[in-house]
Structure formats: C-alpha cells, structure tokens
Amino acid sequence: THSTSTSLEFNARLLGGKLYGVGTILREDFANHNVVTVRHAEWDLEGRVSIVELLRGSGAGISGRDTGPGEQGERGVSAPAVALVNVYAVNGTSAPYRSPENGQTVGTRHDHKIPFHSKLRDECLQLEKRGFDVVVAGDLNVARGQLDGHPNLRTWPKQHCINRADFNLKFFSKDDNNRADAHVGQDDPNRGEPSWQGVDVFRALRGRERKYTYHPRGESEWGSSCDRVDLIVASENLYQNGRVEDTDILDSPQERGTSDHVPLWVKLSLGGSDTCKAGMME
C-alpha cells in the first residue's frame, strides 16, 4: 500500500478535520516483478497525485528493475511501460483557496482547478516523453458532458462550465470530446495550450452508456441525482494499440458501501500474456 497525504496547514482538511490524500494498493507479487517506483508529483503540495511507474512488459516474464521504460526486456521486443497516475483532483467550489506557502487567499477553489489541470496534463506529457504510456485514474471532480450528469449536468455557477471546458480541452482530442459529447465551450479557454490527447476509456469502449460514479448519501432513491466524475483516461497510443481490454463502473448501492462513490476498473495488456487490472474507489 502506497499513500500520499499532506502536512500543510492550509487547504488540507475536509469537514470534520479529516486529511485528504490518495492511496494505491498493489498486489505484492505484481509489485515485486513490475513496479520500478512509486512517487508523488513534485508540484503537488496537497497529496493529490501518486504515480506508479511500471517496467516495460515483455510477454511471459519481466526483466530486472534496471530495465527502463524505453528499453528492451530480456525476453525481446515488448510493449512500452505504463505509468499509473492516481488522482484526487480539486473539487471546484466558491470556497477560498489559500496559498500552500503562506496561507494568503488566492482566489477560489474553482480558480485553483485550472492550474491543477495544467500541471496534471504536463505530468502526463512528460511521462509520455520519457517513453511511458499513461493511465490516469481517480476522482477528477469533473462531469465531462450531458451524458455524465443525472438528471441534469451542473451548470451553475458558470465556473463549473469554464472548468469543464478547460479539462476537456487539456486532456482529450477533438474526436474523444465528440465521442463523449463533452462540453468544450464556445471559446477555447486554452488559447493554443497543448492537449494530452487522452482517451476516456469508458466512453471509448461503452459509448453513450449511462453509468455514474458519484451518488450522494442523501439522495431520496438510488440514481435520482448522480454524476460520472471518477474517470480512467489512457494514452491514445495505449488505446490505439489495443492494450485497453475492458472497463466498467460498478454502479450499485452494494458497491458504493459506506462511500458516496462507486468503484470503477480497467483491464490493460502490459505486453504478451501479461495483464493488469486496475481499479479505484474514493
């Protein structure tokens, strides 16, 4: 088990005084043979991002830990390595956001989502530059479009729409946004900023199917008010090469348990006969 948390005085506590962070549970035999390192993102001062860098897959076995992401394992040519990025993204609200360095108020949590999107996108681009295929999984705190909110998509205050368009344009291609019926706004808020060009694996494999990951505890009946805000997003190369094999959202009261989110999972091919089934739950 690997976890991140923050000891920062500001922005770090939820209602009731609980600290937030993310945890990654790795099966021991998988970790011993496949994991190079587990690290936090250096720019993340709030314990929101954990990164697992895997070895490059090589069919029936995996070569030693000194094999880098762009190198060949001892069993021959193999698929690129995968980096798993576990995320608990900023929840956009009108509450003040305080500088982690000095505690001064610098806008709202709505405002803070936009630079968070940029830093997370840049982390994904840097991982790909190093030779990794990337999978981002977690509570992204964004419902991408009309398919992802029931009975309606949240559009007020307007900052929800601004942040939604910012997220969709920074993380997805035009084709993926069209497939997901994602909101990108009338004006491009990125002004030529780079896009990661990721693939929303649920929409890619399951089309316009309506399943949701967030079900508030106070809803009058199951499914009466819900959103798909927990996502699994893969590098386009990983998807185009057929290495994203399956995915689903376990959308039921039983799977929600004591949380207000349900689990979701993806099955990946690491190369040859090796597979990885990754899931997440808040």
UniProtKB/TrEMBL annotation:
The record marks H261 as: Interaction with DNA substrate. Mg(2+) binds at D139, N141, D260, H261. GO terms for biological process: base-excision repair. Probably binds two magnesium or manganese ions per subunit. GO terms for cellular component: nucleus. One of its GO terms (molecular function) is metal ion binding. The active site is at Y88, D139 (proton donor/acceptor), H261 (proton acceptor). Keywords: Hydrolase, Magnesium, Manganese, Metal-binding. InterPro entries: AP_endonuc_1, Endo/exonu/phosph_ase_sf. The record marks N141 as: Transition state stabilizer. Its cofactor is Mg(2+); Mn(2+). The record marks D230 as: Important for catalytic activity. The keyword Nucleotide-binding does not apply. PANTHER family: AP ENDONUCLEASE (PTHR22748), ENDONUCLEASE_EXONUCLEASE_PHOSPHATASE DOMAIN-CONTAINING PROTEIN (PTHR22748:SF14). This is Endonuclease/exonuclease/phosphatase domain-containing protein. It comes from Diaporthe helianthi.
